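Input record, target 12 of the design panel.
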């Protein structure tokens, strides 16, 4: 169906009747962009609706700018270790405004001009706030839009926990943290997950006194226990004060800054002063302004439920990305957006195999995993063996002086099947894909352990961990 009353290469004018498209995409982030590209490839008329520039959080407030700062922090740490190579150490203090300028400089060409590029490809960009007025019509700041199929891709935003005094005292999230021009001298990080730890390590590397508060008993609590324990120890070595198994019960403004009160599991309370508070305590689906009830679309405080093909409960309405409340990863959002369009247009039931989803946290050193942790495998009833190989025994790591970390492989003892892989160390985010590919191909630990790897490489650690488990 292609009944569009105006050229899709131009922005839709205000004050006209109902504009109908084959595919309407609400939200121009990763899921939305992948959906748009897929739909245009199928020669469909496409409208992308977003009040913000096309690109979404990954480009403007998350993955790309955060990783730019992560890489800068890592290089700064390595400059401080230059004497390891017989080179003069660099001891000058960082001008953080220049680091932030670097981040802006590398992000700019990726972030800018995306609206125009989509127009040039044939999409209609409608700037404004989308609101359902029926199951098949949206109002976008006064104009009406309908569709053959609609994909909701509005993403998520940082959750602010209801801590007494936090709103009055003020805090920052990853969005504001990325725009700081000066380092906070004393930074509190509420939340020991990937976002909090990536940014916490960045600020610690450049000179901030960082304290992390985590309610659970380990940092990166979703990782394998040995990975989490090792990462926590390394954070302490990097000068980060780690407070786990604590609940933040009050925040207040004091003369010296912002006071954070925490309570331990036995009820004891302590206070500490900080200059700024970074909240990294999860995400919420961006659905508040959509008026989903007007369309009869099911939703919860976690997001919009879909089936495995990305369908909502309303015919011809689909959802993809963070707004569904599932796996909040950029690459998952993109694949879901693509699948939603293909399933809508071609009647397929494409779905993602989440059991083999590689996951990476770009801390220093990196953490990556795929499949089951040791505890999950035992809980699922598997009789397991594990294989482990330390970076400290790997020639490539010895050469570079980056010997922290290890590779751990979780294996079914009965048949050698690889159930999970877990890595903490240099380039873990890249190495994990060998384990993921081996699991998808059905290779055993013995198969992977007997596969020759070039020497001296980091990937040998994967082979040797498999040999230890076979």
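The sequence produced for target 12 reads:
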């Amino acid at each position: 169906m292609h009944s569009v009353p105006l050229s899709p290469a131009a922005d839709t004018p205000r004050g006209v009747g109902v504009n109908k498209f084959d595919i309407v995409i609400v939200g121009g982030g990763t899921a939305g962009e992948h959906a748009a590209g897929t739909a245009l490839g199928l020669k469909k008329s496409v409208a992308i609706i977003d009040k913000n520039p096309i690109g979404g959080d990954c480009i403007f407030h998350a993955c790309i700018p955060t990783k730019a700062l992560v890489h800068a922090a890592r290089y700064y740490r390595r400059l401080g270790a230059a004497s390891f190579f017989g080179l003069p150490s660099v001891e000058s203090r960082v001008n953080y405004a220049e680091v932030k300028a670097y981040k802006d400089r590398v992000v700019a060409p990726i972030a800018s001009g995306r609206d125009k590029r989509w127009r040039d490809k044939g999409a209609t960009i409608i700037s404004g706030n989308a609101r359902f007025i029926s199951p098949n019509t949206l109002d976008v700041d006064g104009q009406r839009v309908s569709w053959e199929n609609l994909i909701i891709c509005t993403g998520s935003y940082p959750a602010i926990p209801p801590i007494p005094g936090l709103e009055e005292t003020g805090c920052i999230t990853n969005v504001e943290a990325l725009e700081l021009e000066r380092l906070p001298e004393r930074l509190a990080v509420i939340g020991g997950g990937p976002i909090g730890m990536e940014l916490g390590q960045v600020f610690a590397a450049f000179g901030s006194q960082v304290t992390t508060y985590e309610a659970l008993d380990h940092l990166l609590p979703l990782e394998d226990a040995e990975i989490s324990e090792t990462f926590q120890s390394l954070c302490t070595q990097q000068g980060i004060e780690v407070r786990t198994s604590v609940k933040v019960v009050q925040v207040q403004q004091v003369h010296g800054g912002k006071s954070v009160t925490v309570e331990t599991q036995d009820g004891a309370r302590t206070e500490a002063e900080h200059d700024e508070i970074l909240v990294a305590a999860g995400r919420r689906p961006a659905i508040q302004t959509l008026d989903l009830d007007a369309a009869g679309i099911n939703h919860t405080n976690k997001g919009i439920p879909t089936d495995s093909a990305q369908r909502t409960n309303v015919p011809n309405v689909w959802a993809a990305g963070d707004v569904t409340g599932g796996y909040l990863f950029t690459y998952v959002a993109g694949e879901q957006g693509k699948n939603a369009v293909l399933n809508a247009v071609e009647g397929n039931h494409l779905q993602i195999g989440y059991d083999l989803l590689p996951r990476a946290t770009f801390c220093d050193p990196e953490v990556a995993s795929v499949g089951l942790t040791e505890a999950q495998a035992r809980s699922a009833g598997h009789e397991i063996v594990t294989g482990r190989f330390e970076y400290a025994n790997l020639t490539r790591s010895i050469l570079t002086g980056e010997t922290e970390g290890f590779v751990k492989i979780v294996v079914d003892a009965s048949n050698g099947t690889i159930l999970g892989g877990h890595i903490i160390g240099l380039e873990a985010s890249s190495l994990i894909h060998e384990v993921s590919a081996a699991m998808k191909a059905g290779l055993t630990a013995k198969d992977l352990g007997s596969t020759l790897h070039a020497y001296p490489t980091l990937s040998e650690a994967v082979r040797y961990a498999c040999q230890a488990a076979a």
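The longest helix spans residues 63-80.
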